[in-house]
Amino acid sequence: MKIFHSIFFLILLPFNILISQIDSSDIITEDLLDNIIDESDEENDNTELFDVIEELIRNPIDINSASLIDLTKLPNIDQQIAQRIINHRNKFGYFYSTNELFAIRGIDKQTIRNILPFIKAIPPPNYLQQNKEDVVERESFINNSHLFLRSRITNDLQNRDGFLSGKYIGSKLKSYNRLIYNYGNHYQLGILAEKDPGENSYTDFTTFHLQIKDFGLLDNFVGGDYVLEYGQGLALWSPFGFSKGADAIYPVKKKATYLRPYTSSFEYRYFRGAAAMLQFWDFNFTAFYSFNTFDATIDSITGEITSFGQTGFHRFESELDKKGAGKSKSFGAVLDYHFKEHFNLGLIYYNAKFDNILSSESVYDLSGDNFNYLSTYYDFNFSNFNIFGEFSYDGTSVASINGFQFFAARDFIFTTSIRNYPRNYHNLYGFGFSEKTGRINNEVGIYSGLKWRLPFGIVNFYYDIFKFPYKTTENSLSSEGDEFLLDFITRPFFKFEARLRYKYENKEITEQINFDENIVRRLKQIIRTEFVYDLSNFLRFKTRFEYNHLMIKDAQVKEDGFLMFQDIRYIPQKYFILYGRIIFFQTDSFNSAIYEFENDLLGVMPNLALYGKGMRMYFIIKYKALNFLSISAKYSETYKPDETSLSSGDNEIFGNVDNRISLQIEINL
Q1: Which residue pairs from 451-458 have beta carbons closer than 8 angstroms and sit at least 24 positions apart in sequence?
Q2: What is the DSSP-derived secondary structure letter of residue 432?
Q3: Is 622:630 a contact under the CB 8 Å cutoff?
Q4: Tens digit of each residue's pLDDT (9 = 90 or more) over 414-460
Q5: Which of 126, 493, 578, 594 sits a CA distance of 20 to 30 A from 183?
Q6: In the beta sheet, which residues pair with residue 389?
Q7: What CA–CA distances, in Å, run from 211 to 260, 263, 265, 429?
Q8: pLDDT at residue 1, rounded to an integer
Q9: Is residue 454 a contact partner of residue 483, using CB atoms and an 8 Å limit?
């Protein structure tokens, strides 16, 4: 390792004069998201959630003008902390620097460090007036222009069956390219192009937008691709959002971003057209129109849409036939009213029409080609409690969620919410708080959670009880369940952090017993311990042990899973970061799989299911070559000694090793 470090340093030595320090926001963002999203029990890529955080980094919140509602949009910031920031501002005046937050009593330093990448402090009006001439002199086209380019390629080193058989028409390479140009704070232009493995075109999916902000009454305008987020997500929300996790408070109440450009590579459920938000007095009025295509399977005889394509894959003929086969038109409006810090009310209406009729197998399924939605939401803030909710009507039934937050003491928060999503309620562009990650259909539930900041640590606890009144894709009959999570984090020593987590999940599932399908109870328990220790400013270790126990008593099933990993972050120079992780795992089957969120290249956030017996490791190098140029690479490998093949179907690998390499370049001018 010393030899490698010496050689690497000598190669880079001539460039040291031009080299810039690694942006600390990269590290903060990764650690922050690890805490928010690592409770998922589905194998997925959380790239879209990273886009939400990056949007905050590109457009930080001004703590000199932000409202209570604005500040609570920051990750891991609850209403208590937001109120302390506002109280300090009201008492002592404007912030001249974001570092002044460290002087506020009742907010720990780690919390402030976590939010620094997402906030700014615009100088007070009198300061701007005194320095107006200097500001004018510095204004120019170049000084006001900001260009960001991210280009990434990923390649499997093994050949999957789809490539060996010739079924996939394109190469193994996965490519991603995104360009965003900003002029001042008012104009933004963006374009993205992506290709998945097996696809033929490097522009198989493209998205683009033009944004204009703060132009008189026009608060925000987006032409091209965009998303809308209002209320609690029952009527309008982006295709992704935070769900239940280690933080028992933050995910429950959604934080609307209203109108924003679509910058994700997720190829489903966004608007394409134009939207404008006008601001007058305490009102915001948003109007939008969209005409878009989407992947769909269309019955050749009836002409009906039988299914939506959500994977975005176009690797062979049948997938290509679905590409852009469906067409939809949408239009609508939102009227939003704010009264200082006290309350927020809103009304939503929109219409969605399809060129083809949606087929249905049940009276409860979405059917027809023309849909209307009406929704109202509210958010009331009082001295020590907050109530919020939304009611949404789809022409047939009403879905609702209503929540309550109570600040019982200076460092204690309690929240509860009740959700009622009827089986015959369907929403095309909603993403609500639910057990089934965003689905607003066939679910009733009561969630309660608390966060308690103690002198020796932070306790998060939630309990969620839910029922699916009608059959689901997993169960042929109605089913129910409940779960709770207890998470304790403490920092007993300087630069040392310990975490203990226990999760209990008791659900009804369908299991085959004596050749008959039966609804049975599945009990799943997860215990995790984690230690993070900073040996110095440039060397950090993270160690995790996790045990997973699954039991289905009626089917006489008992399974166990174990995972252990050692993680290292090494920063030998201010412009160079090295990550490494080695993971050992063993589970009885996929049912007892252990899910592991891991660091990746910026913009990529995989949550992997590890099952069977094996080992996984990865290495990441991030290097800021110049002030405007960053280069990063990742190598990952999963090895299962007892297997002869990995995965299945067209993605099957013949062998027991699955490895890949990724390379990314970022230009920030």
Answers
A1: 451/78, 451/247, 451/248, 451/249, 451/412, 451/413, 452/411, 452/412, 452/413, 453/108, 453/411, 453/412, 454/411, 456/490, 456/492, 457/488, 457/489, 457/490, 457/491, 458/488, 458/489, 458/490
A2: B
A3: yes
A4: 999 999 999 989 888 999 999 887 889 999 999 999 999 888 899 99
A5: 126
A6: 378, 402
A7: 8, 12, 18, 21
A8: 44
A9: no
Q: Which of 635, 660, 658, 661 is nearest to 646 (CA)?
A: 658
φ/ψ of 254, rounded to 5, equals: -75, 145
Please give the Cα distance from 329 to 314 (Å, whole number). Answer: 23
Mean pLDDT value across residues 546-568: 92
- State the amino acid at position 167 in one-letter form: K
In angstroms, the CA 243 to CA 468 distance is 18
Q: Where are the domains of the chain?
A: 62-138
Q: How far is CA 29 from CA 53, 169, 274, 277, in A?
A: 8, 37, 31, 29
If one counts every other C-beta atom within 10 angstroms of the C-beta of residue 585, the result is: 23
Report the C-alpha gap between 305 and 477 in whole angstroms: 26
Give the Cα separation of 546 and 500 in Å (integer): 10
The H or E element spanning position 26 is helix 24-37
Assigned CATH class of 62-138: mainly alpha
Closest CA to 366 of 450, 409, 415, 308: 308
Q: At 126, is the secondary structure helix, strand, or coil?
A: helix
C-alpha dist (Å) from residue 24 to 377, 520, 666: 37, 49, 16
Using the CB atoms, write b or e for 172-185: b if 16+ within 10 Å: bebbbbbbbbbeee
Helix and strand counts by DSSP (H, E) for the chain:
11, 34
The amino acid at residue 434 is S
Query: In one letter, which amino acid is 65?
Result: S
d(CA 153, CA 281): 47
Distance CA 631, CA 473 (A): 43
Pick from 362, 367, 398: which is nearest to 235 by CA?
398
As a residue count, the chain comes to: 669
pLDDT digits (tens, 9 = 90+) for 212-234: 998 888 999 999 999 999 999 99
Element (H, E) at 21: none
Structure tokens at 228: 């809308």
* Cα-based distances in Å from 327 to 147, 297, 298, 322: 33, 12, 11, 12
Give φ, ψ of 197 to 5 degrees.
-55, 135
Cα–Cα distance between 238 and 256 in angstroms, integer?
10
- The rounded distance, in Å, linking the Cα atoms of 33 and 599 is 10
Share of the chain above pLDDT 90, in %: 48
Would you state the pLDDT for residue 34?
62
